[in-house]
Amino acid sequence: EAAVVGVVDRQSAPLLLHEGAVYMHGGEAYLVRELDWEGRMARVEPAQVGYYTQASASVTVEVMEVLEEEAGPATQKARGTVRILSRPTSYMKVRLYTHEILGWGEIDPERVPEQEMETTAYWFNVLPETAALLEQEGLINMARDDRGPNWEQQRNQARDRDGHRCRHCGAPERPGRGHDVHHVQPFRTFGYRRGENERYLEANRLENLVTLCRSCHRRVEVDRLVFGTLSALAHVVGHIAPLYLMCDPRDIGVVSEVKSSLTGLPTCTIYDNAPGGLGFSEELYKLHGTLLAGARELVAACRCPRGCPSCVGPVAEVGEDAKANCLRLLELIL
Ligand SMILES: [Zn+2]
Ligand SMILES: [Zn+2]
Ligand SMILES: [Zn+2]
Fold this sequence. Notes:
By secondary structure, the chain is of the alpha+beta class. The protein folds into two domains: 54-134 and 226-333, no CATH class; 142-223, no CATH class. It has helices at 13-16, 128-136, 151-161, 200-203, 214-223, 228-245, 280-301, 315-318, 322-333, and strands spanning 22-25, 28-36, 41-46, 51-71, 75-95, 101-106, 115-126, 180-183, 209-212, 252-257, 267-272. The longest helix has 22 residues, at 280-301. The N and C termini lie far apart (58 Å). The model has no long low-confidence stretch (mean pLDDT 88). It binds zinc ion (3 copies). Residues 182-183, 217, 221 line the site of one zinc ion. Residues 302, 304, 307-308, 310-311 line the site of one zinc ion (ZN).
């Protein structure tokens, strides 16, 4: 007989109740078998699995109105109203206690519609000169989006060649959502500069391209530290902000973007995780310097060698060098 195990708010449901998620309730673990979004119900069953799941979403921030902004020596801070669009993409299975990553799963995008929320947010971006410095030192890669003029064409050819299936796990593409195409030798190592050279031709050769589903791609890129430095910073900031705000960590959301649509620069946004906002962004705007200094202090003091859930995030998520890179980034912007 079916019984109600628990209730989850609409905001958190996509990340906690996707198929394959381990839902923890009252000290018991349940495996989610089916999510019925329209019916507002997930079917779960008790399970002894020895791992927990952690879902990630692709989150987009659209700034609706800037209410206040101020530039400092290396960063510019701002606050305003934003629209947050989020869609769960994949999840990790993490072994209990050791935090070892056991595997990845993809979340079916057709099961959960894109979530949209209007709220208030505080954000800061790195100023252009500092961003250039970060790029020079290899801490971030802003040119990641410019793959040269033949990219679309090469990308489609690679997908056709691979039969629109992930070359790692064989997953087929779903309607309306093509797989990623990945550079075996990283694109940036070719040193392409738009208008200056034609090295994209070499980089985008079909032999250098493979079709990968989102979760296989993410795993490959994590190995290469592409998600590294900014995600690490977002992780720390998201970790300490609730201490200053004296709020629950779930009351805020943190997004890092290497090139935000508003500023075109590396940007970190902390939004109030409730429609209309909770008043935290004003507070964080005032705390900007304190927050960054606190972040540096925390990362420097953490005893883990390369990163852990209480500072920059687990190594498997942010990459081997993320802790060192994040400290360097904080040094440059403080
Ligand atoms: Zn795959
Ligand atoms: Zn890639
Ligand atoms: Zn740590």
